[in-house]
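Collaboration report, partner site 2.

Our partner group contributed sequences for two proteins of shared interest, and the home lab folded both. The records are reproduced in the order in which they were received, starting with the first partner submission.
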Amino acid sequence: MFRTIRRRLFKLLLWFAAASVLLVILFRWVPTPGSMVMVERKIESWIDGKPIDIKRDWVSWDELPDDLKIAVIAAEDQKFAEHWGFDIPAIRKAMAHNERGGSIRGASTLSQQVAKNLFLWSGRNWVRKGLEVWFTGLIELFWPKHRILEVYLNSVEWGNGVFGADAAARQHFGVPAARLSRQQAALLAAVLPNPRKWSPSRPSGYVATRAGWIRRQMNQLGGSSYLQQL
């Protein structure tokens, strides 16, 4: 009996591994139709009795403004071009900080965030963390860096029911993503730690200060020339 169960579990794992590899390879070229975060937000709105419409339009890499690409890297993952999906020094620092207590600090790279947003549910447990490592590894293996950033910018949450750069630009600034200014790009990047609480179009003092820091970091990274590394 136990041998039969083990065989079935092994087959299930093989099917899951094969399916996930094929899915990641497919999304190397095909625009992602949505994400697990979008599904979660939709279900949450139904449960709350306040259904929302998901706003999201795919924008290709060439149509995304360089300022927004650099702003997000400056804000979220300055070693994006160097690492293979995991920023080990940042993870160690976050673990040391969290062991001391207080607010929980994360150290997720853009690659990890793409894996979580696209394929996984919210929460903190070892099963989810293991799947995050698996999908992050697949994404780094099969996608070039510019594809990872392209998918991130088209799937990240930027407000209640607002996903992706184009929907965010139209919602908060009334322009398509391609027409975002440098300041607007920095403000969008500044709210990413908590996009449902903070507003890029009505920035608090903290968000405005963070946007200024992001602009300085964009300059230090080399601006648009940084993208040549991807």
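Second partner submission, folded after the first:
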Amino acid sequence: MKYAFFFRSRLGSGLVLGVSYIILATPVARDWLESTMTAHMLLQIPLLALIGGVACGLLPEHIRDRFLVRIGGAIPCVVVALFVSSYWMLPRALDAALTESLAELAKFISFPILVGVPLVLAWKHLSLIGRGFVLTNFFSMLAVLGWLYIVAPVRVCNSYLVNDQENAGWLMVLLAGFLFIGWLGSLFIDNGSRPYPENPNQ
């Protein structure tokens, strides 16, 4: 009974993820999420990566570990995820996704499979320094790119107006700052620490 419930819960979660992915791929959802740079970069793209990561997390742990060994360990996973996510942050890549069907298809495939899945596979095998490297790289990339969008005197992405570009830039910088502060604060919290006894002699 325990294993049957476990299987059904994972199957149900997988179906929800599949439906969510299909909804994101519909023309209505794509038109809405890609109508502004903010929604495109800070909503649609993270959701695609999240779907892949959650789907990978639903797999049994021994299958994830076996697959990780076959592809060479955690480092190749991190390298692939950083490379793919960095590429899609480029203005030219965003423009291509809006104007070319093959580029749009590549975006919908690469983020779940080449960003979300590798990060989940590698995460528990990374040391604190390794996780810090991944997170600080992401924060800095988000902040630098956001600042570029703010100060650029012309449209960096041909598909979006300058005002839309500036709004996205400010949100990216603010998001990078809040995420960095939150991560930095979490380093000072030890959830597994033993509480201090009320009586010092205990």
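Feedback sent to the partner group on the second submission included the following. The CA atoms of residues 193 and 199 lie 17 Å apart. The longest helix spans residues 162-186.
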